[in-house]
Amino acid sequence: MGLPSWLLSPRLWDFLVDGVVSTLIILTIVWAERKIAARVQMRVGPFHVSPRLGGYLQLVADAIRFVMQEVIITADSYRVLFVALPPLFVALALTPSFLVPLSPHLALLSRPALHYGILMGIAILFYTFIMVVGIGWAVNNRFAYIGAAREALIITAYEIPVATAFADMFMIYKTIDPIEIVAKQMYIVGAIYNPAAFIVYIIGVAMATSRFPFEIADYEGDVATGPYSDFSSIFLALTYAGGIYIALFSYSLLGALVFLGGWAPITPGPWPADIWGNLAAAAFLLFKTFVLMLFFVFLRSVMPVARLDHALSFSWRWVLTLGVIATAIAATEYFVL
Amino acid sequence: MGLKMEQYGLVLKEVEAGPGGKKTLELLFGPQHPSSGHIRFFVEVDGDIIVDIRPDPGFVHRTMEKLGETRHFIMNVPLFERLSLPDAINVTWAYSMAVERMLGYDVSERAEYLRTLFGEMSRISVHLYDLALHAIMIGSSTGFMYGFGLRDLLVNLWAIATGARTTPTWVLPGGVRRAPPKVFYERLAGFLDFLERKMDEFYRLVVKNPVGYYRLKDVGHLSKEEAAAYLATGPGARGSGIDWDARRDMPYGVYKQVEWEVKVHDEGDSLARTLVRIEEVKESAKIIRQLLKIMPMDGPLIGHNAAHKIPPKDREFLNEQVRMSGYYVTTTNLAEGTGLTEGGRGRYFFQVFGSGTERLFRVRISTPSWQNLRAFMKATIGARLMDLPAIYGSFGFFPPEADR
What is this structure's pTM? Predict the structure, then answer.
């Protein structure tokens, strides 16, 4: 083909596909969350902005409003962190999706670094929600403090189970390399190899990204919006109203790779020769990510919010126990398979 | 970064207070809080436990009792309706009952049936309203939409019968203002079927849901003795095992003609109060079904004494509607009257004193939310902070009604 070689660089394409499609997925998922909830609740949902698209552009309108709104920084807040943490939160939330490959040959990183892609992604995601604790502290408001304290308690409760779930899968695959992990799931996906680990992952991610019923740190009933309670405008869009969905996207992408088989069963050829195959693989992976995210946002329609102490005891007692069972299954499969 | 810990942190904001001299944190819960309503609570939390809570009501105090003295007594009907718009019929019924006793008015038989029918609709309306708000308080947006969606069908029925969705102004001293058209009765039966089906779904989605169940179970406990001592009323009392309902114990309307029972739960927690609500909605549907069979479909809408004041030409239409002109030329007696009804949230009590002019000398109002506030505060102490909305919603506390 007559295209210059830099235009066919897999890194550029990975960046473009990941950037564009993740934005589209996040917009669609917020729209779908509202539409699904509306369907369950006997109402229409977003409609009046772009009726022909089912109100899809409502999200764009909301985003524009968030950006145009006046930025208010409260007098009591710690201004540096108040301004710095929301962009940092989004950056950390989005980074993991750039660290993992979208198809065997479509990745931003190259081999030695790519080998640790999923591991780095998990590590960064664990740091992401520490930013929320920082936000709560910087806002310097009593409700924000309580929200931040709750977030800290919840982080301690979900980190170990989620780390266990991923470690169990690494044990089963006997590798941490994302491409090899997908290659091992060509016929059976990870969720069937170890269902216990998958359940632990689902519950852990729901807690991490404050999906229902674990929307505790920003529970409207008693702490307003918790850590974000003094945020407005672009800051709110970067954290509570947008950033969390980006974190959910990253978590789901990692989950789709490890538990749902990534791009398997599509096996594309090498990059410049088989562009469409690689893009199809990326599309399939992102579709699985989308389905996982759909499940997480569907929980809003059917669940109230659990109480903090119930959620913590549930996590420490039952999810951790399930994590140990998952480890036992993984250890068995490590020696059997 | 030049950070001063005493400026940034809870350290400075901790106050020495609460029982046992513990260091507690004082939270100002409301009146702009998303789930506080028009009231402020000074909540003192020790960690996650509420050790003390002080209410600060009065943000929507509208001087209802004083306003009641400044206008013609018939103009008080739309005024007092605004105490609690979800429960409009039961409030205006209590006021009309008080005025009837003051003026010595009788109520026509058909009006008694119609008032009972609409009173039960009003109870369904207020229970749906409270259950919906309770659901959103514990985080279930689906329960919220179910409650308000169902209530919307009900207020549309009100609009058919009275001309207004939320402010019917329909109960008058002596009877009711307007006869519902045929289509109202036809749609009412269909609404009740839909309501009962959807209430089961609501129960499964919000109350039987494991998360929702443990948000309500063993939360905000109020023993029978405490409920009696703090004068709890309505579901707040019946959820604690007090078997009292004004409809049965101080009979009014035609509740004796129909078969129904007072729903009582002994547990005294938020779950019990919520279950009392849900079961009362079903009981109300049962009462309305029976009333539809036995109620007279024709007859004057107001009693003889009130009709006597209506001009003869307007009296010909008394089976369809009541012209208000007769009321405006009526003056109050130098007498006193009381009215008591059981609303959705508890018992409404009105006491009116006539002055001999068209205005009342004094109106006294006692509303259930105001009474339940003390019981609500008592139930909250010792609960966790996240339980506060779960207890608030279970009492159905409604600040505009409490503040009057």
Answer: 0.89
